[in-house]
Design brief:
By secondary structure, this protein is mainly alpha-helical. It is built from six helices and two strands, in the order ααααββαα. A two-stranded antiparallel ribbon has the order 1-2. The longest helix is centred in the middle third of the chain and has 40 residues.
């Protein structure tokens, strides 16, 4: 696993543990299957109940922080209706301003989630392309011309076989090779006959 996936796994486990803790002590309002908007005085009531039950206030505050930032919670807030106390009893109505704020937060959360998913998808595509490139053997140049062999563009027709390279023809006696003068000069210095 990569460091990023380990961190995501740890965060998911932290959320699950936090939600389980909330559901254990206040199941009427912390239910993943039926999300309810919390009453406005929930923070003060939670603090008082944590002291009564001997719970870690910071741990509960972190759990509630994670709870209210869920897209499902923001969607429940945007839908409007009743707010609920910790015991599940109605505790006031949502205002239009609270609903519109929740709708904006919900939209921002969804956009952030989509951007993260798009980034993950692009990263996976990049990794896949790299693996495919490593798995494919490099094309060897066709003999003779130094260019890579190209597959036949027409479908259904097998690719043509590479042509064998033409043997180098010997130069005609009348044709002087570019380095013949140099070879003759070198032979003269060494005292040998040049051909």
């Amino acid at each position: 696993m990569t460091e990023s996936s380990n961190r995501k796994q740890k965060m998911a486990e932290e959320r699950q543990a936090a939600f389980a803790l909330l559901a254990e002590h206040w199941p009427a309002v912390f239910d993943l299957k039926q999300t309810k908007p919390l009453a406005l005085d929930t923070r003060e009531r939670l603090k008082a109940e944590c002291e009564t039950k001997g719970l870690d206030v910071d741990k509960i505050a972190r759990a509630v922080f994670l709870w209210v930032r869920r897209p499902a919670y923001q969607a429940a807030m945007a839908a409007g209706g009743q707010r609920y106390a910790l015991d599940g009893t109605p505790s006031g109505e949502m205002t239009a301003e609270q609903q519109s704020h929740a709708a904006a937060v919900s939209t921002a959360i969804k956009a952030r989630i989509k951007a993260a998913e798009d980034a993950r998808r692009a990263e996976r595509a990049k990794e896949y392309a790299a693996r495919q490139a490593e798995a494919r053997p490099a094309r060897k140049p066709a003999e003779g011309n130094g260019k890579p062999a190209q597959p036949n563009a027409k479908r259904g027709k097998p690719a043509s076989k590479p042509r064998p390279a033409k043997p180098a023809s010997a130069p005609k006696a009348s044709q002087a090779l570019p380095d013949t003068a140099m070879a003759n000069a070198l032979a003269a210095v060494l005292g040998r006959k040049s051909s």
